[in-house]
Amino acid sequence: MHLTKEEESILAGGSGNAAAKSMKILTALGDIFGAEKLIPINSVQIAGVSYHNLGDPGLDYLAELAIDGKVKVTTTLNPAGMDLVDWKKLGISDDFAKKQHMVIDAFSKMGVVTCCTCTPYLVGNLPRYGEHISWSESSAVTFINSVVGAYTNREGGPSAIAAAMIGKTPEYGLHLDENRVPDIGFKVDADIISLPDFGALGYFIGSNGKDKIPYISGIKNATLDQLKSFSASVVTYGSKPIYHLEDMTPDAQKHKMPAEVITVGEKELAESYASINDDTGPIEFVSLGCPHASISEIAEIADYIEGKKVSDSVELWIATARPIKMLADTRGYTKVIEDAGGKFACDTCMVVAPLKGRFKNVATTSAKACFYCRGKNKMAVKTGSFEQCIDAAMNGKWN
Ligand code: F3S
Q: Does the beta carbon of 140 sit less than 6 angstroms from any atom of ligand 1?
């Protein structure tokens, strides 16, 4: 990969240790993937924030970078392993909290905006169409490439931090138009209405599209929340963090339906639901907000839960970004939800928090959460609408 004189000087240590380390990562990546040069970026989102995933080696790496490293562009974080303020109420230990705060302090020292969310586009880290960025979180990468039309690869934590330190990324993969062309079509001939329907559709398209980029027809008027859910699901069960939705996503008009086409009918949707769901015992944990809940989703939850009571045998979490929770406070939604026994889990979620072994059976609206709760946390899962999940929180069982 060609480096400018300035980039060579950074690599040689002329701008400090953290910048040199970061440039080394970016040049290695560029060489591996055949990039010709580094290109400027305007936004970074870093995954790998939970101490649960980082451990002490990850914390040491961040602490070393923080000695002389400073980010060059707007940079936010993926969810951490706990609510950074109300962690005790979520059953997090003091030891874990101490280490998690050390992780956040290291990022803060580097100049990162320590807002921990997988929906940075809802809270001020929103790139425009055509802008080059470096984001890590798979659901956010898929949303921003597809729905907004910004350009990013799915970065690992270290490469996203490196991009933030330099303000550049190697030009390869989804930064190039030729790699954003759809190569498999899906015609949707089923009623895709609710949030979990979009999750189930994402399951089907991801599982069948595998490493191809889908072009999808037959979906009309999806909301932002539905596209957020679909983005999370399609990349979890597939692999490409981009899709094109006919008449809906901005780049779809540049393309047409590929030759290979698969139809998704009611039967395929029902089979997808059956594959996502497990046989569950009594529901002990209900988690809403994957990806992190928007203010309109919290309004919907408050509206349905008002006057009800969460069962003593169930824990109900609403995972969201802290600024969204602050909006919920001003509208009275927080009080309604907490009066009913629900708990806000800001800055975190049920997948990155250290929950393994605490709950056996979980209900959620999210097909992505089902995948990780089952695989990583060894829970049995059910997916359904907000109403179904809240009913399960009231009764401790799934209907
Ligand atoms: Fe976000 Fe956690 Fe789901 S990071 S997409 S809420 S698994």
A: no
- The pLDDT assigned to 356 comes to 85
Instruction: Please give the Cα distance from 152 to 141 (Å, whole number).
Output: 7
Closest of 397, 388, 368, 347 to residue 90, by C-alpha: 347
pTM: 0.97
Secondary structure letter of residue 257 according to DSSP: -
292 CA from centroid of ligand 1 (Å): 6
Instruction: Measure 220 CA to ligand 1 centroid, in angstroms.
Output: 25
Upper half-sphere CA count for residue 351 (Cβ side, 13 Å):
26
The CB of 228 under 6 Å from ligand 1? The reply is: no
Taking CA atoms only, the protein residue closest to ligand 1 atom 2 is 349
Mean pLDDT score, 131-160: 98
Cis bond upstream, residue 182 (ω within 30): no
CA 67 to ligand 1 centroid distance, Å: 30
Does 350 sit in the ligand 1 pocket, CB within 6 Å?
no
- Residues 350-365 have pLDDT tens digits of 999 998 889 999 999 9
Convert the pLDDT of each residue in 50-98 to its tens digit. 999 999 999 999 999 999 999 999 999 999 999 999 999 999 999 999 9
Omega within 30 of 0 (cis) for the link into 214: no
pLDDT in tens, 170-196: 999 999 999 999 999 999 999 999 999
Between the CA of 348 and the centroid of ligand 1 the distance, in Å, is 8
Minimal CA–CA distance to 165: which of 11, 57, 4, 3? 11
Task: Determine the distance separating the centroid of ligand 1 and the alpha carbon of 176, expressed in angstroms.
Answer: 27
How does DSSP assign 82-105, residue by residue?
S-SSSTGGGT--HHHHHHHHHHHH
Give residue 332's pLDDT band: very low, low, confident or very high (50, 70, 90).
very high
Given the structure tokens 């009611």, which residue do they identify?
266
The residue whose CA is least distant from atom 5 of ligand 1 is 291
Q: Is 158 in the pocket of ligand 1 (CB under 6 A)?
A: no
